[in-house]
Amino acid sequence: MTDTTGFALEAAAVGKRFGRRRGSGGWALRDCGFRLPAGRVCAVVGPNGAGKSTLLALAAGLLVPTEGRVTVLGTDPASARARVGFVAQDKPLYPHLTVAETLRMGADLNPRRWDAPTAERIVADGDLGPKTRIRALSGGQRTRVALALALAKRPELLLLDEPMADLDPLARHELMGVLMAQAAQYGTTIVMSSHVVAELEGSCDHLLLIGGGRVRLAGEIDELLEAHVRVSGLAQTSLAPHTVVESRTTGRQLSALIRPAGPLPEGLRTSAPSLEELVLSYLRNPQAPGTTPAEAASESEKATL
Amino acid sequence: MSALRVPGLPRTVLRLHRPALIVWGAFVAALIGWLVWLNTVTSSAGERERAYCDHHETCNILDQLNYGQRTVWVATLVCYSSLAVAAWAGASLIGRELESGTAQLAWTQGVSPARWLAAKLAVPALLTTLGCTALVLAYRRAWSAHPGLRDGDWTSVTTFVARGPATVAYALCALALGALTALLLRRTLPALGVSLAATWALHFALERFREHLWPSVTRVTATEDVWPRHVWQLESGTIEHGHRVAHAGGSPCEGNPAQVKQCADKLDITGYYQVYHPRSHYWPLHLVESGIVLAVAALATVLAFRLLPRRTRAARKESLA
User: Fold this and answer.
1) Is there a domain that residue B226 lies in?
2) Is the pLDDT of residue A298 over 60?
3) Fewer CB near the terminus (10 Å): N or C of chain A?
4) CATH number at residue A98
């Protein structure tokens, strides 16, 4: 399943500008660089309008980067089309087709790759009648059909834009299980965006944090968590030379999230941050230095060795 | 459909546009049915009237008029069926897909956008060609069945198109123009409107310039003569001082032959001329027009395919600094 480079998705200095306006306006994504090793389940998190959907659409070959290059499964996104699954945020489906016709369309458009039993099982688990028209389905039911379409083509890379947004907790849990089973069984690389971090914790092993159109943080979640420490101590404690992501002083008490550059000063209480704390700290502090794309790339390389 | 073993992509196009296919099939069948009705029931009543009129001073021509008029209606529907194709192609075939994002659904299956557009154009083109060919053949048969009851000659605007392959050419061109406008505008309703307007404008322009599409015939006579039968009359007039002078409202000299001669001498009229297309020019005129329309269709198709990568394409071949 893995290609020669070992990366499912690579972005090199990718920028995408909408509209022809010059100046700062119009850039949805700027100077975006990262490498995602094959076989990972990657969470793309960031606030609304951060560029998550743009990034996924670039990877799916639906948008052309204004600058830089996107590499998917070792080739360009257009050539990788047959091996990539994509579920857009608004789950576009043909409203006048029935569920069964939609799946038959998937079989017709993905000759040789189509896994009909998988598609039928996912749909049947949601109690969807094959004769039901798509326009009669609820948002969550449409999501299920869209996921069935994307999974049954047996993609090597599965791109999901806010996949779980309109699912009830039960369906969310079940479909996440289906996704993880797929990833485990076929080594599928999954990239899913969300602005709900809790949704991704526990199922993802790689993180891509996007804010303001740039990559703020990229790497294995375990390594990212290990690289950061939550500290608390007296307010006058100097945190230099460590990288401070976020610090807050209440009275004489200091609490901060830092990326240690060496041994920590005496007298600080330390604890491990949760993924949500880490993400929120970066999002609350847009000026906090993130890991640079080069660092992220070298981290990813280390991870693949 | 499955019995025919249509390959996957065309089958999907057929499945997606089944309602349009049914409407188009019903339209073709209804028009052919109407022509059959006109040429069995209405025409026999008209012919009976005509036979009666041949031997009586006063007679009723209502059935004859009905037959002629309704045949013209059919010609109008056949000729302008391309407008319906244009509206559908702009709105339903491509425009709605781009607006609602379902085109992207297709492009993220194992189908490249170029193959998608090719199938989206080829399948409707085939069915449009079949339908229009059936309509043209039926109309030609009906038009020549009862010449005595006809309303209008081969030159009438809609009959001219409906009797030949220009009908097919206009429909194919409408399909291509619809796809092009939809790719340009990416919205259902604007694409519908612009596609319809562009197709209508093409009809309008070619109707205006039709007479110039093939060299006309000029006949010069010493005395004023009536027009030859079944010709497309373009211009007539007199030759005065060796120059042609067009007379739209009839001859400048009227009266008995002696009076006309006297008048002509006074005005120094040396002859009369008529400019027209004989009936034998129908096919040259018709085929040139069809060729122009097909050229526009080809141009629109090429532009649509060249525009498509700007709507969706990955990895521009750019070197990275």
Assistant:
1) no
2) no
3) C
4) 3.40.50.300
Contact B249, B298 (CB under 8 A): no
- The residue among A197, A168, A192, A193 whose CA lies nearest residue A180 is A192
Beta bridge partners of A158: A85, A190
Q: Which residues of A touch B314 (CB under 8 A)?
A: 58, 61-64, 70, 72, 76-78
CB A92 within 8 A of CB A105: no
Interface test mutation site (partner B, options A14, A20, A62, max chain B beta carbons within 10 A): A62
Find, among A13, A89, A87, A100, the residue nearest to A49 by Cα. A89
The interface pTM score, or ipTM, of the predicted complex is 0.81
SS3 category, B314: coil
- Find the CB nearest B320 among A63, A68, A93: A68
How many angstroms separate the CA atoms of B180 and B174, rounded?
A: 10
The whole-angstrom separation of Cα A28 and Cα A52 is 9
Nearest to B315 among A70, A92, A97 (CB): A70
Whole-number Å distance between alpha carbons of B4 and A228: 63
Are B134 and B240 part of one and the same domain? no
A157 touches chain B (CB under 8 A): no
Q: Is residue B81 part of a domain?
A: yes
Q: How many domains does chain B have?
A: 2
Residues A235 and A113 in one domain: no
- For A102-146, the pLDDT digits (tens) are 999 999 998 888 999 999 999 998 888 899 999 999 888 999 999
How many distinct structural domains can be found in chain A?
2
Which residue from A minimizes the CA distance to B96? A94
- Kindly state the tokens that stand for A182: 């797929």
B298 in a structural domain: yes
Alpha carbon B317 to its chain's center:
44
**CA–CA dist B295, B291 (Å, integer):** 6
Closest by Cα among A25, A10, A52 to A283: A52
Domain that holds residue B135: 2-212+281-320
Distances (CA, A) of B92 to A137, A207, B112, B170, B179: 22, 41, 20, 19, 10
Among B8, B101, B109, beta carbon nearest to A90: B101
Strand arrangement of the beta sheet that strand B269-277 belongs to: B217-221, B269-277, B232-240, B243-246
